[in-house]
């Protein structure tokens, strides 16, 4: 099975559980931030849109969103909650975007989803296609974990208790390959109905590597924050929000 097929299979497994697993994450600050960058009349493209956790509230703020995702089951969840919002979806691989001549004022990829491209060449190809799809003056925004954030890379293997109650146990089993920069997870859930496995496979990227890949793709970093509220990035930050424009584009 190729990489696209594998990611599809993993995320199809997540789809019925994804919104419940992440119900505690407020997408409002992300939607506010992204709406301010898209500007009045701007159109957005979300890569790895999933169930529309961010795309739907962004559309509520008046920004039409096109979302691309490899998992039909995740997109089915999005459509179940879409209502009459201006969100359209495409099934596809974000390393193999079919621009069809479309240009966007805003392209974004959130929640470390860029890392689901499992090799550096696929990550480089994605950034190159993004650069070609930005409208003049458009912005590309990536939200991702900073790889050395506590917990993620603590050794080659770890098993962590995420939640433990009288009726429920959540574990994360993590295998890390520091040479390939890959992490394979199983989120393991036990409750009275039985056991569930929720798998994740990702290739993390350090900030320096991301900026080099972006530069090679013709993208230029303009801003970098620690969160969607624009807090400054510090040595203890665990995630970053990075904003790029096409090199040579008017800031
Ligand atoms: C963690 S979810 C993020 C969903 C949404 N962006 C959010 O913030 O909640 C990751 C998503 O990436 C999608 N995905 C993984 N690999 C992909 C690829 N190569 N191209 C497009 N989507 C991909 C999965 O199907 C899944 O919906």
Explain what this protein looks like in three dimensions:
With 251 residues, the chain is an alpha/beta fold. The protein is 29% helix and 34% strand. It is built from six helices and eleven strands. A seven-stranded mixed β-sheet has the order 3-2-1-4-5-11-10, sandwiched between helices. α4 links the parallel β2 (65-69) and β3 (87-91). α5 packs across α6 (207-217). The structure holds S-adenosylmethionine. S-adenosylmethionine binds at residues 4, 7, 11, 48-50, 53-54, 68-71, 74, 93-95, 110-111, 113, 116-117.
Number of helix segments? 6
**How do the strands line up in the largest sheet?**
3-2-1-4-5-11-10
Structural class: alpha/beta
What's the mean pLDDT score?
A: 93
Amount of helix:
25-40%
Largest sheet descriptor: 7 strands, mixed
Span of the ends, CA to CA: 42 Å
Bound small molecules, by name, code or SMILES, are: S-adenosylmethionine
Shape: globular
Give the beta-strand count. 11
Low-confidence stretches: none
What fraction of the residues are assigned to beta strands by DSSP? 25-35%
What would the CATH topology of the largest domain be?
Rossmann fold
């Amino acid at each position: 099975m190729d990489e696209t097929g594998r990611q599809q299979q993993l995320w199809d497994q997540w789809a019925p559980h994804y919104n419940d697993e992440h119900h505690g994450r407020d997408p409002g600050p992300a939607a506010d931030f992204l709406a301010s960058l898209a500007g009045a009349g701007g159109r957005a493209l979300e890569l790895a849109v999933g169930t529309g956790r961010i795309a739907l509230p962004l559309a509520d703020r008046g920004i039409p969103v096109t979302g691309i995702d490899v998992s039909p089951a995740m997109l089915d969840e999005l459509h179940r909650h879409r209502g009459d919002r201006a969100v359209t979806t495409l099934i596809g691989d974000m390393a193999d975007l079919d621009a069809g001549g479309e240009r966007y004022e805003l392209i974004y990829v959130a929640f470390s989803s860029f890392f689901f491209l499992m090799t550096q060449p696929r990550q480089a190809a994605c950034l190159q296609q993004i650069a070609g799809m930005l409208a003049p003056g458009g912005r590309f925004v990536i939200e991702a974990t900073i790889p050395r954030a506590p917990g993620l890379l603590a050794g080659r293997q770890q098993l962590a208790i995420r939640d433990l109650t009288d009726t429920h146990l959540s574990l994360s089993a993590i295998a890390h390959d520091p040479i390939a920069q890959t992490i394979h997870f199983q989120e393991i859930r036990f409750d009275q109905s039985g056991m569930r496995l929720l798998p994740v496979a990702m290739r993390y990227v350090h900030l320096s590597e991301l900026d080099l890949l972006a530069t090679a793709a013709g993208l230029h970093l303009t801003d970098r924050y620690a969160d969607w509220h624009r807090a400054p990035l510090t040595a203890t930050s665990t995630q970053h929000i990075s904003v790029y424009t096409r090199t040579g584009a008017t800031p």
